[in-house]
Amino acid sequence: MTDMRAEEHSPSSLPVAVIDIGSNSIKVLVAQRKPGGRLRSLDSHTLDVRISAGISLKPPRLSEEGMCSGVAAVQALIERCQKFHPASILVVATSAVRDAVNGAEFRSRIKSSTGIDVRVLSGEEEANLIGRGLLTDPEVGNFSDFYLFDLGGGSLECLSFRARKVTQAVSLPLGCVRLTEVCVADSGLAFSVADHAAVVARVKSTLLAGSFTFDLGPDAEALFIGGTMTSTRFLIAAATGLPPERAPTNLAVSAIEEVFRRIAPMSLEERKKVPAMPAARADVLPAALATVLTLAKIGRIRNFHTSFHNLRWGVADETLPILQTHRVI
Predict the structure, then answer these.
(1) CA spacing 20 to 30 A to 232: which of 11, 198, 249, 250?
(2) Is 312 domain-assigned?
(3) Which of 238, 240, 255 is nearest to 289 (CA)?
(4) pLDDT beyond 80 at 255
């Protein structure tokens, strides 16, 4: 028989730290593998550093300010995770660095200042690692056939799962910073009818081009992760007098529509004063919500589940070995 006490006290793996350089923010996860295979978070932290300003330029280019802020953020997160004595520190970058013509220069600056090489993920790698990370979440253990979406500043990752296996993984240039720069006349003003129409048209034309298909039927479950959905959860909670820790984890599309209708007519300064509004996302949130709602309409989705298990969890899962549990006969 199995001695459960021996299994419980089996040593966990040494932790790893994963730093994700995103378009809107730079985040760290320190995680370790527990006996039985589950990942455990020891620390998680986000710095709102938008390195992607200018991502819609032709060609896309990271600004000097963005690169300096990005390097400083990576340095700060490396220092933060040192107290956990990670076996390794992994730094990955996504759309903003992947697309920028001076992305190599930015990576070189990080290497010079930290000694760590930055792994630039392809769109396919990013999407698949997001899917892998989601599957480490015990809260989605009963999901089998479902969609997963992750909206960043530079791109929208779209995945389909059948029997918990990825059948589609597509990265689309529909990030909220990118769409705000391309489609919104002035992000300091109210989100106008023309702004909304431009975002909807861009999202529809990209999704309906056929690179991602909604093939699971009208009643398929859907998950949406990333800063847009986290911000929306907290805005909904604040509007109903709930503390952040009681923010809903399942969001009806109708509730997301209500948030959009409330903030779209506001100027940027008015939006920043909305309870629970993250100031660093206030300028791009209208375009982000318009993207979410357009996607929901095309996919006939009525409800989105949420999860905090994301790209960083996928990289950690890819990196950490599976521990063997101790058995006593």
Answers:
(1) 198
(2) no
(3) 255
(4) yes
Tokens of 276: 């629970």
Type of residue at 211: S
Q: Is residue 327 part of a domain?
A: no
274/164 same-domain check: yes
Same domain, residue pair 256 and 188: yes
Q: What is the pLDDT of residue 326?
A: 39
CATH (domain of 49)? 3.30.420.40
User: In which domain, by residue range, is 11 found?
Assistant: 4-124
* Domain match, 147 and 195 both: yes
pLDDT: which is higher, 241 or 2: 241
- Predicted local distance difference test score (pLDDT) of residue 329: 34
Cβ-contact 323, 10 below 8 angstroms: yes
CA of residue 329 relative to chain centroid, distance? 44
Q: Annotate the chain with three-state secondary structure.
A: CCCHHHHHCCCCCCCEEEEEECCCCEEEEEEEECCCCCEEEEEEEEECCCCCCCCCCCCCCCCHHHHHHHHHHHHHHHHHHHHHCCCEEEEEECHHHHHCCCHHHHHHHHHHHHCCCEEECCHHHHHHHHHHHHCCCHHHCCCCCEEEEEECCCCEEEEEEECCEEEEEEEECCCHHHHHHHHCCCCCCCCCHHHHHHHHHHHHHHHCCCCCCCCCCCCCEEEEECHHHHHHHHHHHHHCCCCHHHCCCEEEHHHHHHHHHHHCCCCHHHHHCCCCCCHHHCCCHHHHHHHHHHHHHHHCCCEEECCCCCHHHHHHHHHCCCCCCCCCC
Give yes or no: residues 236 and 100 share one domain: no
Give the tens place of pLDDT for each residue, 103-154. 999 999 999 999 999 999 998 999 999 999 999 999 888 899 999 999 998 8
Q: Is residue 100 in a domain?
A: yes
Instruction: Give 313's Cβ-side CA count (13 Å radius).
Output: 21
pLDDT of residue 259: 97
| 170 and 286 co-located in one domain | yes
CA distance 158 to 221: 14
